[in-house]
Design brief:
Two copies of one chain form a homodimer.
Chain A lengths: L2 E6 L7 H16 L3 E6 L5 H12 L5 H8 L1 H16 L4 E4 L6 E3 L8 E4 L2 H8 L3 E5 L2 E4 L4 E3 L4 H13 L3 E6 L20 E3 H9 L7 H9 L4 E5 L7 E4 L12 E5 L2 E10 L4 H11 L4 E8 L4 E9 L3 H11 L7 E5 L2 E7 L9 H11 L6 E5 L2 E7 L3 H11 L8
Chain lengths: 407, 407
């Protein structure tokens, strides 16, 4: 008898037929002798619909009210899933984030969980009910309704799994797991049966769209075994687990790509202490998240600092740089939004020399110029022209031996 | 500086444009120096949409989950109204039924309010905010979300007005007030500027569609002055107030009609004590609400008992009567769903002899046969053929001097 937390995303509960299919899977899990806690997102595009309504009545959209509005979505899907379970003879009860004891800070639209008090969920499990919990939402220390921001429903599921000591947290979505590359970009990508938390975090951080970085971090910190599965085919999926030191790791597990960022270069800056600090402090104060940072110092005592930001932040970042250009004695500020990042991720990289060289050679052999490089112990990322990202993913996927055997 | 509770029904907040219009009226009320508490229903047909979804996933529709589902509707409209207010520079905060301290029993889908603890509403008013509260919903003593049943949003508004000691409870709807008859039936009907609680209760009980009996009862019990107004024209509307003994009452204030009921006659029953009790106990146990009851005893010691029930309960009522027919020695059970009820309501009736006679004469002069009669101190109701209800309303409206002066 295990305790299983299952999270169903928006496409998984997108219409009545999908909701009934999900209820049947929950019933099967229950019939197999498991205690089950279900976390649901809002149905399909319902959140977008609510946002359109908000836009139609308000330009200011106060965050507290936006949260109140958006949380209606999960309320609907969790009630419908519970009703569908009742038809299958499965006793179920739905709980809002507040009822599930998900206590957050007061940072509306992107609240952080401060504490989990899932007493009512425990009580429901004790009397044999399936607990169906609204994802993405909580209640603040000021007793206001909050939302957890992007990927919030996954965070809800992982946080509940951690607080309840669940044996597994199953994330159901519209893909069959985590792939060695985006199958739309690399048709020969294959599903990974398992990846380590470290790898999954690098994959999530560099363009993998299946899981958000935040929920993976949370799961690793609390030792919650995660599995990503399809709610359409119910295939086994991908397990995200602690690294097992006795196992032989693949050198490279996945190739990721990300074309959502743009590059800013502050050029001709005197190479003096404090210049970079001043620059990135100014950006941080403007609420701009900087991703890759590369600095090259030339022979003339001048340096170029390049960094990437989300394309949506590019205008603000450029403005900020121009504002402090004179203060830091920079020669120029330039921007480029036609870039993309290609990364290779693999826990085995740590003990395998030559990976970096193979990556650069492969790109070079395919005539793909590298504009920026950044590395971690289990990842190497290269910024290339946006229109070469697909080629880069495919040739790296082949070079690192990831291509599925063709049938 | 007054405390005003304003309730907006589904058509009043039916689309973004309506929501902005409502926000503007709230802003005007606030600018006039009033404290304002707003109660909203779900937008237009949204509740019906949710019910359709429930039907699509579940045949059993457990009441607890149905309540969880339906309360999403007010959540959406209250957040949107609050957002629209923010755009007008009016500080507002929305509150669920639970946050507003509306404590109910555990009777899902038709819960009764047990206690009002509107501390958060008071706090909001104290800091100068408009409090926007979800109508129709509360939280049970078991901490589950409940709904208050039909007309529940009006009940929320009245209960809040009572608990907060509001100066007035304004019910905004898509009509301009309470009329001397249904204007669709009697084109010469006119808006009443004021009616007494007693009259309003009789009007609500006999077919007036503007206010539900339950909220009028609640308002009278707590002495909350009500006014019914249009959120489309913002005309003055109809005040529902305590009778003022110094004022001259109109003999008859309104003519109402109701064709939603059917008649059951249990005929040829021996006129013995306990027969009626046995019959209506059986119906009550089956959850069938009986409205008018008329019993006529003939010379032969036999009696006919006729009563009206909602058409939707007719089948069940007939079945129940047939089941106990032999036990009470009844000769036959017959039903008739082609009836309608016409009522005259007026506080002045108490002190005006001749009203009954004028009603019967008027119907008779117009060739309308009376099948059942029931009276209260300020109402007389007659059951007539359904297809003569319109004629009956119009001729009574004229006979009692209610016709608007034609321009």
């Amino acid at each position: 008898m295990a305790l299983v937390v299952q999270k169903y995303g928006g496409t998984s509960v997108g219409d009545p037929e999908r909701i009934r299919a999900v209820a049947e899977h929950i019933a099967r899990t229950r019939a197999a002798g498991n205690d089950v806690v279900v976390v649901v997102s809002a149905m399909g595009k319902f959140t977008d619909e609510l946002l359109r309504m908000a836009d139609a009545v308000s330009a200011t959209r106060p965050p507290r009210e936006l949260d109140m509005l958006l949380t209606a979505g999960e309320r609907i899907s969790m009630a419908l899933v519970s009703m569908a379970l009742a038809d299958l003879g499965v006793e179920a009860a739905s709980f809002t984030g507040s009822q599930a004891g998900i206590i957050t800070d007061t940072d509306h639209t992107r609240a952080k969980i401060l504490e989990m008090r899932p007493e009512r969920i425990r009580e429901a499990l004790e009397v044999g009910q399936v607990a169906v919990v609204a994802g993405f939402q909580g209640v603040s220390t000021e007793r206001d309704i909050t939302t957890l921001g992007r990927g919030g429903s996954d965070v809800t599921a992982v946080a509940l799994a951690a607080a309840l000591g669940a044996d597994v947290c199953e994330i159901y979505t519209d893909v069959t797991g985590v792939f060695s590359a985006d199958p739309r970009v690399a048709p020969r990508a294959r599903r990974l049966s398992r990846v380590s938390f470290d790898e999954m975090m690098e994959i999530a951080a560099t363009g993998g769209r299946v899981l958000m970085l935040r929920s993976v971090e949370f799961a690793r910190r609390h030792g919650v075994p995660l599995v990503v599965r399809s709610s359409f085919t119910w295939e086994p999926g991908t397990w995200i687990v602690e690294e097992d030191p006795t196992m032989e790791e693949a050198v490279v597990s996945a190739i990721t790509d990300d074309t959502s960022e743009a590059k800013v270069t502050v050029g001709g800056v005197p190479d003096r202490p404090g210049v970079a600090a001043r620059l990135f402090r100014a950006l941080a104060e403007a609420g701009i998240n900087v991703d890759m940072i590369v600095q090259n110092t030339g022979a003339n005592g001048m340096t170029d600092i390049s960094f990437t930001v989300a394309k949506t932040d590019l205008g603000a970042a450029r403005e900020k740089c121009l504002a402090i250009k004179d203060e830091i004695n920079a020669a120029q500020v330039s921007t480029d939004d036609a870039i993309g990042r290609v990364s290779i991720v693999g826990a085995g990289m740590k003990s395998s020399p030559g990976v970096t060289a193979l990556m650069f050679e492969t790109l070079s052999d395919n005539g793909i110029n590298i504009e920026m490089i950044s590395t971690s112990s289990i990842r190497i990322s290269c910024v290339v022209r946006a229109d070469r990202v697909g080629d880069a993913v495919r040739c790296l996927h082949t070079a690192f031996g990831l291509d599925a055997v063709q049938s």
